[in-house]
Structure to design on (254 residues):
């Protein structure tokens, strides 16, 4: 007599493109059932349909992570559909124009904070609650930070501040989750090639005032790193991981 091992349940925000899409595909290939969240319904549904055609389990749930009611509806759908959540990849994020701070429109500051900080908090909060009350209790939250959580690029105060805040959220989750078998990680990414980052191959403002093209890496390497953390038992954790294009200007004096 054979027994069927139930699929583990993952939720990926910002799943419709870039790193979120790459991570979603990786988790699906690893046998996870994945809930896909993002603001644009079309790419989410296209990805879910693609997965279902391969016999994989995917559910598209259009969501705005900056809106509490939208996040509540997302997690209600997860609980109603699957009864539990084993993994949240908190990935949705936005940037602001690279301009001197006094030239930055305030709405751009609030937009970055709403998505990169409040959105991460709202999703982590809802995941924490579900993981705390489900049986068996526990789960894993992986936050997408950035190399900007360590050091800024020129004219990136909003994004840099938001990613430093994500580090604080991650550490607090890792501490507060101990009593409930909830673990938290942060993956800090440098120069993954996506639709949004392709411009960096043509030139990025450097600390010395020059503009230079930067080395990039494929997003699949980020996906593989997330898959590695996700596959670990809850008794072990990688609290912080930096994954970057090997020769990008992050370490050293370039």
């Amino acid at each position: 007599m054979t027994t069927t091992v139930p699929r583990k349940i993952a939720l990926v925000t910002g799943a419709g493109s870039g790193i979120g899409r790459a991570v979603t595909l990786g988790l699906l290939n690893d046998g996870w059932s994945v809930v896909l969240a993002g603001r644009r319904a079309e790419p989410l549904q296209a990805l879910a349909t693609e997965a279902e055609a391969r016999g994989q389990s995917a559910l598209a749930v259009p969501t705005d992570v900056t809106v509490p009611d939208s996040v509540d509806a997302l997690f209600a759908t997860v609980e109603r559909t699957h009864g539990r959540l084993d993994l949240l990849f908190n990935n949705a994020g936005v940037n602001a124009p690279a301009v001197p701070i006094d030239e930055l429109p305030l709405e751009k500051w609030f937009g970055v904070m709403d998505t990169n900080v409040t959105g991460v908090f709202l999703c982590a909060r809802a995941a924490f609650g579900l993981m705390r009350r489900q049986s068996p209790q526990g789960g894993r939250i992986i936050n997408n930070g950035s190399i900007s959580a360590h050091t800024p690029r020129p004219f990136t105060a909003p994004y840099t501040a938001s990613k430093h805040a994500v580090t604080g959220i991650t550490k607090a989750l890792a501490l507060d989750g101990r009593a409930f078998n909830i673990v938290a990680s942060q993956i800090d990414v440098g120069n993954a090639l996506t639709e949004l980052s392709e411009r960096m191959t043509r030139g990025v403002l450097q600390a010395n005032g020059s503009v230079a093209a930067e080395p990039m890496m494929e997003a699949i390497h980020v996906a593989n790193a997330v898959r590695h953390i996700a596959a670990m038992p809850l008794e072990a954790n990688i609290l912080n991981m930096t994954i970057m294009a090997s020769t990008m200007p992050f370490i050293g004096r370039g």
In short: The chain has a mean pLDDT of 94. The helical segments are 18-29, 41-53, 68-82, 106-133, 157-176, 219-230. The longest strand covers residues 182-190. The chain has six helices and eleven strands.
